[in-house]
Design a protein that fits this description.
Rossmann fold, 2 domains, 481 residues, alpha/beta, single chain, 8 strands
């Protein structure tokens, strides 16, 4: 959801957010999530007839796209629901796990669970081992991804062994970027589904997303002013060491972050540092982060402890153009570097997380600005990619999107909330989840032993809305924690 993305944050996102594979490029920036999606459910299949280009009727080229089906709760029939779980920027590992709330809802409602891997991620590669080449990435767009889902649904109804009835109700589910896809699909193709659930979906494309930094500050401040102040002091310290000392001192500092850090520019290293702190708050680890940062009375001790902390919670090479420009197909490496996701934000989505001057304590260096991101995109792809976010919002509606039967959830500590639609309009229901450590995609996660009251209330509301979309009576009291 994030230009440069991290491996661990990605795993974090993918799991908390997507509950499936998200490895999500999701660095703090990305929605994108450690792995709550494991063990996953569902049997894996391959759809070998997906079009590479849905918009050129003269182009009949196809590729194989992986999908999963879980039918342990499903009883075939004309009114039996189908929950379509949208996988996003990372290798898809299947349908939602038994630690997820969508899994619980499928169990209670007797739904068939289906998940589809996003084009260019995992093993769903339109051009095989050549898919990561910049020229071949041109078919990696939101429009193509939405048409993948629509065409797959049509094929699934007509050809699948479960004998799907045309009357069966479909509901799409996604978190973060897949949450955006869920909302956009409902808007663009309302005839395909009876409703959609979009968790932490930043449906507004924003070029200069400095407000994310402000939301990180507000989130950290929930632990008291000492937490954001510690983040600012660390950012200032590392920036001073990288710009106001001798070259030998600068290299020595980078070496403390490991060999990979020596390949990063100063700005890229500063972005890694800031994004890792932001990611901890985004992915519901604010209390843990702030307890760590405020546990030191000696600043030198904090500095020494912060470096291994940062490295343990993120993948530093994901922030270096030197590494992300590698166009060799390698699923394990692709999930860490997310070259594909960087292409999406550089060419279409934006969401560049820049320095904010609205905060009392700065959450990142002022050097992390649009000029930095524009150069990063060019360094990675060797072409001048830059998104037209106004045009994108005009095409997809932004927060002015208008459709029906859409659940839009946002966690109180999710820095992405200002890119989301947070007001209810008609049957587009916005649910704000206010509880400690309730961050990105928190509603998709289910841990019966630790569900706070705010999340319980949101789950009950989601449950009732899903039943309403399916034409069933409300039974929210039957949710068991």
């Amino acid at each position: 959801m994030p230009i440069i993305t991290s491996s661990k944050s990605i795993l974090l996102l993918i799991s908390i957010c997507l509950l499936f594979s998200f490895l999500q490029a999701i660095s703090a920036r990305r929605f994108s999530p450690k792995n709550l999606s494991s063990p996953t459910t569902g049997k894996q299949y391959t759809f070998a007839q997906q079009f590479i280009d849905h918009f050129n009727p003269l182009d009949g080229r196809t590729f194989s796209q992986r999908y999963w089906v879980a039918d342990e709760f499903y009883s075939p029939g004309p009114n039996s629901p189908i929950f379509f779980y949208i996988c996003g920027e990372g290798t898809c590992t299947g349908t939602p796990s038994n630690k997820s709330f969508p899994y619980q809802m499928a169990q209670k409602m007797g739904a068939l669970l289906v998940a589809l891997e996003h084009r260019y991620y995992g093993y769903s590669q339109p051009f095989g081992p050549e898919s990561m080449k910049t020229a071949n990435l041109r078919y990696l767009t939101v429009e193509q991804a939405l048409n993948d889902i629509a065409y797959f649904m049509s094929w699934f109804k007509e050809n699948y062994a479960f004998k799907i009835h045309d009357s069966q109700p479909w509901i799409t589910i996604g978190g973060s970027y897949p949450g955006c896809l869920s909302a956009w699909l409902r808007n663009k193709y309302p005839h395909l589904t009876v409703g959609a659930w979009a968790s932490s979906s930043g449906i507004k494309s924003i070029l200069d997303f400095s407000d994310l930094d402000y939301q990180v500050y507000l989130g950290a401040s929930r632990s008291g002013p000492e937490c954001p102040q510690a983040i600012e002091k660390l950012n200032q310290y590392f920036e001073y060491q990288l710009y106001e000392t001798s070259p030998d001192v600068q290299q020595a500092l980078k070496a403390r972050f490991g060999e990979d850090a020596l390949k990063l520019s100063n700005e890229e290293l500063l972005y890694f540092i800031a994004d890792t702190f932001a990611g901890q708050i985004q992915f519901s680890h604010r209390v843990e982060l702030c307890n760590f940062l405020t546990n030191f009375t000696d600043f030198d001790q904090l500095v020494n402890a912060s470096i291994p902390y940062l490295l343990a919670n993120n993948a530093i090479r994901a922030y270096g153009a030197y590494f992300v420009r590698n166009d060799t197909f390698d699923p394990a490496m692709d999930d860490m570097l997310l070259r594909q996701w960087n292409y999406q934000v550089c060419s279409q989505l934006g969401w560049f997380q820049t320095y904010s001057n609205k905060t009392k304590y700065a959450m990142r260096s002022s050097r992390i600005n649009l000029d930095f991101f524009k150069q990063f995109c060019k360094n990675v792809f060797d072409v001048a990619l830059w998104p037209d976010t106004d045009r994108f919002n005009n095409d997809f509606g932004g927060v002015d999107l208008r459709t029906t039967n859409l659940i839009l959830t946002t966690g109180a500590e999710d820095p992405w909330k200002t890119a989301a639609k947070n007001t209810t309009t008609g049957s587009m229901t916005a649910i704000f989840i206010d509880c400690p450590d309730c961050g990105h995609c928190i509603d998709l996660y289910q841990d019966n032993s630790t569900v706070p009251d705010g999340l319980k209330q949101a789950h009950a509301q989601i449950h009732d809305l899903l039943l309403n979309y399916l034409g069933q009576s409300s039974k929210s009291e039957s949710i068991i924690y």
